[in-house]
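Chapter review: from sequence to fold.
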Amino acid sequence: MNIGTNVPRIVISAPHGQSGKTTVTIGLIGALVNRGLTVQPFKKGPDFIDPSWLSRVSGRFCRNLDCFLMDDETIRDSVFQAGRNADIAVIEGAMGMFDGLDLDGSGSTAQIAKIIKAPVVLVVNCSRMTRSVAPLVKGFKDFDPQV
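The token string follows.
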């Protein structure tokens, strides 16, 4: 039951966990809501703590997306069904963008972004870094051209 792909959407990811994804996602959702937009939040994986924060700031129930428990069509349908009455869907990733169940990155945040054809915002903790952030970000940009 693919209902279409006209829901504006964005994925928030990072090179690794503890990078500030949740803080950035909460801030982004809060800013969008303060501008009068309706935001449908999602969280990658079986997490229940982050979704409670995302639900609170958005005023909408946060849904989980899990490549291990859901096939591609179910993930797409979940995003496009839940997001159909929202101005934008914001999906917070988990761990590092390409970290998944195996060396191919199955179940990763990158896989979710590819399934729903969403652009990704990379949150990078730049503490104790200057120019070194450039090759790090370039590596993420070039690693998988489908993301």
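Two observations follow directly from the output. The domain at 9-143 is CATH 3.40.50.300 (Rossmann fold). The first helix runs from residue 21 to 34.
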